[in-house]
Amino acid sequence: MDSKNYLIGLSGKKLKIPKNWKNPSGKWHLGLKALYKQTVSKLSEKLPEIDCIVWFNGEKWCVCIETYKKNLSNAKVLTNFCDENEFGILDFKGNEIVYCISVKNDGNLLEIFTREKDSGSNVALTAAAHFPNNSKQDGLAPGAQIISMRIWNPAINKSALLEHVHKALLKCIEMKVDIVIYSFSSFGGDEATENLVHRMVNEHNIFIFKSILNYGPFYGSIPYFNKNVESSIFTIGAILTSEVQKRAFNIRINKNDPPPPVVYTFSSRGPGANGSRGVDFVAPGVLVRKLSKISFGNFFHRYSSPNAAGAVACLLSGLKSKSIQYSPDLIKFALFKTAFLPKNGNIFEFGHGIIQINEAFEYFCKNMKDFKNIPKWMPKAGGIFFGNRNQTLMKQDFKLSDFIDIENQDTTNWKIQVSKNAENFMEVSKINENNSFFVKVDTNILEAGNFNFGEIMILHPKIGSIFNIPVNIIHPLIIKGPQNFYIKKETTLFFEKPFRIRFFSESVKICDIKITAPKSIITDLWFQYGFPNSMNVKEANETKKRLIFSRINSSKTISVKIKEMELFDVCFYQKIQRVFPSASFKFEFNFKNDLQNVEAVDEKTVLIQ
């Protein structure tokens, strides 16, 4: 610094240091840093570099990065966020960026933390916000302490990101957190990180909540890169309730006959790894809040995971107040026993059902004496799959040990039972002396093309059901060649409740799908197709198209090239909105071997006429 209190920043800019900036040592640490513009787009925009100044005032480390201001007396000076919980807002090149800092290595390392869109704030608001003067805006657990960790940085590559994930999880152990809301797509399939997740759960009693991904509405739309931690974490799907329809979307609701909860179409569905449900529980998936000055304009948010985590935080608080010990496994069991599965609710959409936190608390308190009798679920326990299209009567043998740990368990009086929805097409034997049983399925009475499921409940004489094995039956409508094949379906679409049909094509080339809406209204629907055996969930997600129907144009035809000897899934649905009403539609499927225009159509192209 010269005699006039000027420093030359690394950018070459002259920086006049205010006289009230105390620096007994006279040492200034200078740096350059380029931040990223906060944006709703997928690509982050890199902003010009700014000078950074770090110094020690005799008591604490101080930082100024608002060096773009002409008068640094007006610039924000921060210290370590962990010490004083202060933050600043950069108003740089027309971009307002919220930030905080951390100084390490005797002032030689400056870490600048910025937020990623509105996501972290909305997660925190949903789970544990507290407004002393307006409790109606509180989150689920307003007494909880919030620790925010950001692992994403657009400047780093994937391998570095995994290091950040690992570091954040280790920090959670160090800080002895109770619950982690993991707002990222996956744990990277990294073995070290997966082992750390198991350690957090089994050794440190840490609960990990994660929202299911947004690749719905197809069944089997859960990527498998979390399969090795699926049993340890709480995977939460998103539901739409009648209350949310009324308050968030201004939909008129019949108070005497409200619509049942449905899973949002964006929410991925099971089966998951090894035929599991893929989703443990569901919770409301929409957050409604007023837009802040530095918000990105999103009004509705997909936050089922913080909803569930906030509710469970209250459950843990209640158990702690009664000095009742718990573990993630026992809490998941109590939630499983008390969850509400709506009538005709599909287990691959709802998992065990909607979390009922009060009932779970009461169940835990009343039955904790029996918890020592609960066998652990096997880490990779999945489900049962039937899918031989050439057979209508199918049978498979299983062992109890495939699903639960029966070591040191007396299974003499255990029973197994088929869920009510599957009693007419599924049969189970008794458990034999080898702890084995068989399952039979008869598809003769099932409508081809539908998606069928059931459960096999393992019953303990004292506790009741201790594990429900999900069963998935693939029974497609088989399309044989060489002749053309025509089928017509009519249905009324309700918001977020898809109409699905599954085919298996042996030799046809093209499927023309004609969709007809009522001529009296203007409405819309979304169309999506996929080939489950050869198309991954991201590719299937890219096939979706929105179709708008009017009085003048009430029908549209879509042509899709068919893959021979493969399953072909088709899905139609209406997203909830304020613009168009739900409606009845007619769907006509015409499978043919007409080679005309086949070359113009590929697996990723839809022709709309």
From TrEMBL:
The keyword Cytoplasm does not apply. Residues 120-353 form the Peptidase S8/S53 domain. GO terms for cellular component: cytosol. GO terms for molecular function: serine-type endopeptidase activity; tripeptidyl-peptidase activity. Keywords: Hydrolase, Protease, Serine protease. GO terms for biological process: proteolysis. InterPro entries: Peptidase_S8/S53_dom, Peptidase_S8/S53_dom_sf, Peptidase_S8_subtilisin-like. It holds the Pfam family Peptidase_S8. SUPFAM superfamilies: Subtilisin-like. PANTHER family: PEPTIDASE S8, TRIPEPTIDYL-PEPTIDASE 2. Belongs to the peptidase S8 family. This is Peptidase S8/S53 domain-containing protein.
